[in-house]
Design brief:
By secondary structure, this protein is α/β, with parallel strands linked by helices. It is built from eight helices and twelve strands. The radius of gyration is 19 Å and the shape is elongated. Calcium ion is lined by residues 8-9, 51, 53-54.
């Protein structure tokens, strides 16, 4: 699971990052709002841990901007601002939970589990863009009603791009998610799989290459 940690206080940032890594989470760090938004737009996260008092834009402004950019990653606020008004403001802005600093690390972990359980239960299982339909439970793909047989990795690539439609996903991100390793990015493994996938779908333009950035599927996403 990928977590984006947005915290400007170096000691706390390190403490939370190390603690989460020890639990097996992959942690990406940002120390201000614009850095956080850039990362959230470029990568796929399961959760964002968001401080409120940040240099530049506040955590609440970050929540507004996430909404504006249509980034639906669940957010838990971690803040020293602990009044009821602060908590209400954070939750009303769209955060799924609000953890007051200082916090017990075990409790933070439990809240992370609770939020990801909730979002997990809300996850859609059927995705459709244009003529392409994806069933995440049956692991099946149809193009214009015709079933297409994909390998496990081809399916996973298509899944990531469809679930996060209209967002460019970098090769690094795809490599980490689909191959779960950091292989040499000089290799053309992703290009080879992508080319096979495009051939099987029979829609060359469906998955678009953004040179130097990654891949994207654009279109109207329907999910249920
Ligand atoms: Ca802070």
């Amino acid at each position: 699971m990928n977590i984006l940690l947005v915290e400007d206080e170096p000691k706390l940032h390190d403490f939370v990052r190390k603690g989460l890594q020890q639990q097996g989470y992959q942690v990406w760090g940002a120390t201000n709002g614009s850095e956080a938004l850039e990362l959230a737009a470029a990568h796929v996260f399961d959760l964002i841990l968001l401080d409120v008092m940040l240099p530049g834009q506040t955590g609440l402004e970050v929540l507004d901007n996430l909404k504006k950019f249509n980034i639906k990653t669940p957010v838990i606020i971690l803040s020293a601002l602990g009044t009821t008004e602060n908590v209400i403001a954070g939750l009303d802005k769209g955060a799924m939970d609000y953890v007051k600093k200082p916090f017990d690390f075990g409790e933070l972990l439990a809240r992370i589990r609770a939020v990801t359980r909730k979002t997990g239960s809300k996850t859609y299982t059927h995705y459709k863009i244009d003529l392409v339909q994806l069933d995440l439970i049956a692991r099946k793909v149809w193009v214009d009603g015709r079933e297409v047989n994909l390998t496990k990795r081809e399916f996973h690539l298509l899944e990531l791009l469809m679930v996060h439609a209209n967002r460019v996903i970098s090769k690094t991100e795809l490599a980490e998610r689909v191959w779960e390793v950091n292989f040499d990015m000089g290799s053309n493994v992703i290009e080879v799989h992508m080319s096979q996938l495009r051939k099987k779908l029979g829609m060359e333009e469906f998955i678009q290459t953004r040179v130097g950035l990654g891949y994207v599927i654009e279109g109207n996403l329907i999910c249920r």
